[in-house]
Structure formats: C-alpha cells, structure tokens
Write a structure and sequence with these properties.
CATH superfamily: Response regulator
Number of strands: 5
Shape: globular
Radius of gyration: 13 Å
Order of helices and strands: EHEHEHEHEH
CATH class: Alpha Beta
Helix content: 40-55%
Strand order of the largest sheet: 2-1-3-4-5
Number of helices: 5
CATH topology: Rossmann fold
Largest sheet: 5 strands, parallel
Length: 115
C-alpha cells in the first residue's frame, strides 16, 4: 500500500483527500503546514506527497526545496489554484511530478499518484 502525505492549510481539503485516498486503498497522513510535514517526512517513509503551493508560513515551492535539500526522495504532486506559467516552471525546476490545478478531478490525482 502506498503511503501519502497530504499538505494543505485547509482542514476540509486535507480531510476530503484523505477519505478519498483511503477508499482507493492508500494510507494517508495529513499536515496543515510545512513544519508538521517536515517532521512527519523525517520520521515516516512516504511514497508521495500532495501539496498546495499557497501556504501560510512558507510557500509550497520553498517547502519542496527545503524537503529536497534534506535528501527526501518522494514523488511530489502539486494541487493548487495557481495556473500560470511561472508557477509551472518553478514546479518543473524543483522536480515536481505533476502540477494539477483546482478544481481538482480525482481521476487526475489518482493517475498522478499511480505514475
């Protein structure tokens, strides 16, 4: 079973994604910010992280860069409302596997996790 980390500032989004992923056979843990997410990543092996880039204490791009600087090697999927070329380019340079925009279609997310 794949283990997912869901990082989003909104509890309702975290909870919804975790419920959907559980029904699809994935184990999910949730974090409301990058600090909590980094602590979890340091302790638990994850296959995939789903994160937004619009967060409070540091943006998702800074968070991804910090996570990668700590040599954590997991698939990163960005789910965000930012749909501009600059953001997509930042994500590509950071090695993000998939850049998905909201409104999110669950089939897109499941396909991204499976690749």
């Amino acid at each position: 079973m794949s283990r997912l980390l869901i990082v989003d500032k909104y509890g309702s989004i975290r909870d919804l994604l975790a419920r959907i992923m559980k029904r699809k056979g994935y184990e999910s843990l949730k974090a409301k910010n990058s600090e909590i997410a980094l602590r979890l990543i340091d302790k638990i092996p994850f296959d995939t992280m789903i994160t937004d880039v619009e967060m409070v204490e540091m943006d998702g791009f800074e968070f991804i860069e910090l996570m990668k600087s700590k040599k954590h090697d997991l698939k990163v999927i960005v789910v965000t409302s930012l749909d501009d070329e600059e953001s997509r380019e930042k994500a590509r340079k950071l090695g993000v596997s998939q850049y998905l925009t909201k409104p999110l279609h669950i089939d897109q997310l499941l396909a991204a996790i499976g690749n």
